[in-house]
Design goal:
This protein is of the alpha/beta class. The chain has 11 helices and 16 strands.
């Protein structure tokens, strides 16, 4: 089991994904600010993993707060929540996790004025979010595996595996792992995913560890391999899904979806129900993060392009719902019309919760 992020007595421990696959290094982050910075710098990335890390960072910061009253603790807590909300704008799991920590604080504050008890309850809430993410990915994988034919070659884009979640299965790769565990023969074509190379660095690393056959292709090879009949299914993750099914995922996903439609290849999105944002009616309302130009112009310290050239670096794009054959969640599989099916699954999650 890959332990992407976990709570320890010393602090929040996470694998530094910037160094993979060259170096497998774990960091222990000892403050809320350090966790927030790790999210910004993509030490940890992937929508579910960001949510888990944010919850743990807030719990860690609250544990370290020195205020002697519940009122002082609440002021510190609110400041930490605001700090965390400024890290990455697109991934809705971040804001879902922050709101869940806010709810936990309100419940604890209503029950007790003992600051140490409030701190313990917040730590337990963060750890519960971690446990639930692993369980939800297992459930998601089970639902999605039924959509993968035996002998299929699956194209992926970015990394939506254990590294993008709390660990273990992952979302898109969870579907692939579950299909393998069900006895199906499955192979993967992993888009390299420029500019941060999550496919070639992270997806390939994970699948190689799991002995699942994987072949890396550059992003601009996707249409070619589809035309050759080498792709049976496309499965990707998501950072935010609007109420109508429009889906934000790593930049380049929209291109893959258009190509899949042209070649009659089913295109599936895999994400926990917490990634569905019913407050946003369509993908036009999803904020798109613009990242540092250096991620495009350099690979680590090696410059690739002329100095001073203009650069765009949007981290995500939005795939319209009409290109999506199904959205696989931990509550079941949603199909068009997504306005109805996603709301039904979200409501079922709330009812169970």
């Amino acid at each position: 089991m890959i332990k992407t992020v976990e709570w320890t007595d010393e602090g929040v421990r996470m694998i530094d994904q910037r160094l993979l696959p060259i170096e497998e290094k774990y960091l222990v982050l000892r403050s809320c600010d350090e966790v927030a910075e790790a999210i910004k710098l993509m030490v940890v990335r992937g929508a579910p993993a960001i949510g888990v890390a944010a919850a743990m960072g807030i719990a860690l910061g609250t544990r370290q707060a020195v205020g002697t009253s519940a009122v002082d603790l609440e002021d510190d807590f609110n400041f930490m929540c605001e700090t965390m909300s400024q890290t990455r704008p697109t991934a809705v799991n971040l804001f879902w996790a922050i709101e869940r920590m806010r709810d936990a604080f309100r419940r604890a504050r209503a029950a007790t004025s003992d600051t140490e008890e409030i701190k313990l309850r917040l730590i337990e809430e963060a750890r519960a979010i971690h446990r639930e993410d692993i369980a939800s990915n297992r459930a998601l994988g089970h639902f999605g595996s039924e959509l993968i034919p035996d002998g299929a070659t699956v194209l992926t884009h970015c990394n939506a595996g254990a590294l993008a979640t709390a660990g273990d299965y992952g979302t898109a790769l969870g579907v692939i792992r579950a299909a393998r565990d069900a006895g199906k023969r499955v192979a993967v074509l992993a888009d390299e995913t420029r500019p941060f190379l999550q496919g070639s660095r992270l997806t390939a690393w994970e699948l190689e560890k799991d002995n699942i056959p994987v072949t890396i292709i550059t992003d601009n090879m996707a249409g070619h391999v589809m035309k050759q009949g080498k792709v049976d299914v496309v499965v990707v993750g998501a950072d935010r899904i609007a109420a109508n099914g429009d889906t934000a995922n790593k930049i380049g996903t929209y291109m893959v979806a258009v190509l899949a439609r042209q070649h009659d290849i089913p295109f599936y999105v895999a994400a926990p129900i917490s990634t569905v944002d019913l407050d946003i009616s369509s993908g036009e309302q999803i904020p798109i993060e613009e990242r540092d130009a250096r991620e495009v112009t350099h690979i680590r310290d090696q410059r690739l392009s002329p100095e001073g050239v203009a650069v765009q670096n949007p981290a995500f794009d939005v795939t319209p719902q009409e290109f999506i054959a199904a959205i696989i969640t931990d509550r079941g599989v949603a199909r068009a019309p997504y306005v109805d099916s996603l709301r039904t699954l979200v409501n079922s999650a709330h009812a169970k919760g």
